[in-house]
């Protein structure tokens, strides 16, 4: 239905057509001057708690300039379930009318405006309704009315109820940045073929169900790990750098409208145990998005505090902290500039009953019936290749988790951390079960650095961890009641296109001749990574290459690059492919692989690393509800599938304080 034409609406329509926000956006989810958050086309789990924010924008200048920059403060909003009369938001959710908020922000309309440093200024009037929920499945229409006749409409869908817990436990493995292409390459490195037949396979190759998820953000087709993790954990897409919220335009990065995550739901409804394990620093996007609610993923100190205490500045559901929390990132725990308000977060966790481990020996000895924190180094954990093959690279590090000078010693790997987390969660979850997220983080981090071998080593470590997890669950007698999902949050444009003869390449002097070392099609040969080199045994067992440094190596590349030098084959030292030159732009790093050939980049000249790619990513599933994971769907559906399998779609405000004891407890009659 077309709105009645009036002068204001016509003028607005004309000015809006001048803007088609792409590189920069006024507010990604808000193409009109009235914004509804959550925006149009969003889905909700029944009973999932969320905040609503309305914003009315009055651009003061720029191509959208409107109403002399004075926002409508008398805007109204309604919500209607299909077939029902609209009610005001306050009436519908039985809340008091919140106070009006006002602020100003600015943005660039395009790259020309940025070059000229002429931002457009926008004044805003807003209201936020905190902590509401929709319990009845169906379609809802939210209408924001402003500027005397203008309307912004959002259609929301509440998914079907899912009250029955079909899986007692969920273990969600995330290979950060992991694509099918990388999985294929890792299999070639770690597993042997005879005449084209694999003699062994990856653990994930044996999963019964495979699906495909689309990773787009709510307002861009490219994603980062914050908002993609958030989509996987909450069923709500977000914006780059944001998690657990829909990004608003206010200056406060913590006041954005929140959405409840899977561990918050699981804790509130069933009282289950939960944990996160990562080879990244634990405040990094993928682990921290389980509890993080922020528009700025780099608010690390605040995010660690949120993991332990919940969001303290706004009334919000909280988890009482993780039961098992293992990774890197001592910077946010050692009292100092990296921790919130300089506090000692080791002590904060210990105060709440956590055991604190700084190395593998202490981790393995930590009691299983106590909440467990394990922070094993500063920054990210060194990658599998450096922990197992090029161990001399660890000695020069200054990453002791206590804050003392010198390298972190006695590091656990992803497998050690994951198996210990299962022990703790199994014990602490008891009848109520558990949720564990385990992340192979440096698949992504090393792909960013174009270090394919380090990335694939960590992919094989993730697969080895999946294999050991299945064996462990079997031993504990809980494999049948545990849903295991292995997926990624996004991809990188990596693939293999042949081999490279490293000996021939090294003997050539110029760049073009070096490229002739690459063998394509019939010259690609077979994997030499699975053939042991005489006199060399890494002792890293099956599932990993027997030779990381064969003469014939994989030739691989990325869909998008900074300028860099390519010399296929493993580097003994971690890689920095490009760096900032004297003019402030990024060029080939002179000391990186000097014997390689130059590949000029395709990325903007301020990017020193590779970037994420558009590709859909695989979803492997095994266990209860596995059949729901086949097909092609959005990243948010991974949340709805897991949440439905856990019985988290409830028709009323259900908290453990109602007296329900969760799994195995009183029957839910609703
Ligand atoms: C808008 O006004 C601000 C000053 O308030 C100015 O800095 C900016 O350049 C103006 N932008 C445009 C697009 O005119
Ligand atoms: C659900 O109940 C809890 C505890 O009584 C309360 O704090 C919370 O605000 C309620 N949530 C909603 C959406 O009403
Ligand atoms: C709470 O809000 C205050 C003021 O807005 C801010 O200084 C503080 O850092 C916030 N705390 C957290 C944990 O977000
Ligand atoms: C491991 O940590 C414990 C303290 O939790 C310490 O006593 C021990 O020396 C550490 N081991 C190594 C190898 O650093
Ligand atoms: C890469 O680009 C530089 C200019 O930035 C040019 O001088 C050089 O020839 C190019 N190299 C290749 C291999 O294309
Ligand atoms: Zn990344």
From TrEMBL:
Keywords recorded for this protein, A-Z: Magnesium, Metal-binding, Signal, Zinc
Organism the protein comes from: Corynascus novoguineensis
GO molecular function: alkaline phosphatase activity; metal ion binding
EC numbers for this chain: 3.1.3.1
Cofactor: binding comment: Binds 2 Zn(2+) ions.
Binding-site residues, Zn(2+): 176, 444, 448, 489-490, 612
SUPFAM superfamilies: Alkaline phosphatase-like
Family indicated by similarity: Belongs to the alkaline phosphatase family.
Signal peptide extent: 1-21
Coiled coil: none
Highest taxon of source: Eukaryota
CDD domains from the UniProt entry: ALP
Cofactor(s) required for function per UniProt: Zn(2+); Mg(2+)
Region (Disordered): 651-670
Record-given protein name: alkaline phosphatase
Enzyme class, broadest EC rank: hydrolase
Catalytic residues, chain numbering: 225 (phosphoserine intermediate)
Annotated Mg(2+) binding sites: 176, 284, 286, 439
InterPro entries reported for this sequence: Alkaline_phosphatase (IPR001952), Alkaline_phosphatase_core_sf (IPR017850)
Keyword Chloroplast attached: no
Basic and acidic residues biased stretches: 656-670
Record carries keyword ATP-binding: no
PANTHER family reported in the protein's UniProt record: ALKALINE PHOSPHATASE
């Amino acid at each position: 239905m077309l709105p009645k034409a009036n002068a204001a609406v016509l003028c607005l329509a004309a000015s809006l057509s001048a803007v088609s926000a792409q590189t920069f956006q006024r507010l990604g989810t808000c193409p009109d001057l009235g914004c509804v958050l959550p925006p149009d086309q969003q889905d909700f789990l029944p009973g999932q708690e969320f905040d609503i924010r309305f914003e009315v924008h009055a651009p003061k200048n720029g191509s959208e300039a409107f109403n002399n920059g004075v926002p409508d403060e008398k805007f109204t909003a309604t919500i209607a379930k299909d077939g029902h009369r609209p009610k005001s938001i306050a009436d519908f959710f039985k809340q008091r009318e919140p106070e009006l908020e006002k602020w100003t922000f600015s943005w660039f309309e395009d790259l020309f405006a940025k070059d000229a440093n002429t931002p457009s200024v926008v004044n805003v009037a807003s209201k936020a309704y905190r902590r509401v929920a929709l319990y009845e499945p169906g379609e809802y229409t939210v209408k924001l009315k402003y500027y005397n006749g203008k309307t912004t409409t959002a259609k929301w869908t509440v998914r079907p109820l899912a009250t029955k817990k079909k899986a007692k436990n969920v273990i969600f493995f995330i290979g950060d940045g992991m694509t099918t292409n990388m999985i294929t390459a890792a299999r070639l490195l770690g597993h042997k073929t005879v005449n084209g037949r694999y003699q062994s396979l990856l653990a994930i190759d044996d999963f019964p169900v495979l699906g495909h998820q689309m990773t787009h953000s709510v307002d861009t087709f490219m994603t980062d790990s914050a908002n993609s993790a958030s989509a996987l954990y909450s069923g709500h897409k977000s914006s780059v750098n944001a998690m657990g919220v829909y990004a608003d335009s206010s200056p406060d990065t913590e006041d954005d409208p929140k959405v409840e995550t899977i561990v918050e739901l699981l804790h509130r409804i069933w009282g289950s145990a939960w944990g996160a394990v990562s080879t990244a620093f634990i405040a990094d996007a993928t682990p921290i998005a389980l509890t993080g609610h922020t528009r700025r993923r780099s608010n690390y100190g605040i995010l660690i505090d949120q993991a332990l205490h919940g969001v303290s500045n706004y009334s919000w559901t909280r988890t009482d902290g993780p039961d098992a929390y293992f990774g890197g990132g001592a910077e946010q725990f050692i009292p100092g500039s990296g921790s919130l308000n300089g506090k000692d977060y080791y002590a904060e966790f210990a105060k709440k009953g956590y055991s604190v481990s700084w190395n593998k020996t202490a981790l393995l000895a930590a009691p299983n019936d106590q909440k467990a924190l394990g922070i094993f180094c500063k920054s990210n954990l060194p990658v599998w290749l450096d922990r197992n093959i090029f161990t001399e690279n660890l000695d020069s590090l200054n990453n002791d988790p206590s804050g003392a000078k010198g390298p972190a010693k006695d590091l656990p790997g992803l497998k050690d951390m994951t198996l210990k987390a299962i022990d703790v969660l199994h014990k602490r979850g008891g009848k109520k079960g558990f949720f564990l997220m385990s992340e192979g983080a440096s698949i992504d981090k090393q792909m960013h650095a174009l270090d394919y071998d380090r990335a694939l080593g960590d992919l094989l470590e993730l697969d080895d961890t999946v294999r050991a997890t299945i064996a462990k669950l079997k031993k504990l007698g809980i494999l049948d009641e545990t849903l295991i999902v292995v997926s990624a949050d996004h991809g990188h444009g990596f693939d293999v296109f042949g081999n490279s003869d490293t000996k021939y390449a090294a003997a050539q002097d110029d760049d073009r001749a070096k490229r002739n070392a690459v063998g394509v099609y019939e010259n690609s040969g077979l994997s030499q990574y699975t053939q042991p080199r005489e006199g060399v045994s890494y002792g890293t067992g099956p599932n990993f290459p027997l030779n990381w440094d064969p003469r014939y190596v994989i030739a691989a590349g990325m869909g998008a690059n900074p300028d860099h030098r390519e010399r296929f084959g493993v580097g003994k030292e971690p890689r920095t492919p490009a760096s900032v030159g004297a003019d402030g732009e990024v060029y080939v790093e002179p000391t990186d692989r000097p014997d390689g050939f130059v590949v000029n980049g395709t990325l903007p000249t301020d990017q020193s690393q590779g970037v994420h790619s558009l590709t859909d990513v695989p979803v492997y599933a095994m266990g209860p509800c596995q059949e729901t994971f086949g097909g092609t769907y959005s990243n948010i559906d991974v949340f709805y599938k897991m949440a439905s399998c856990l019985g988290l779609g409830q028709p009323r405000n259900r908290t453990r304080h109602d007296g329900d004891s969760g799994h195995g407890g009183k029957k839910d009659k609703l």
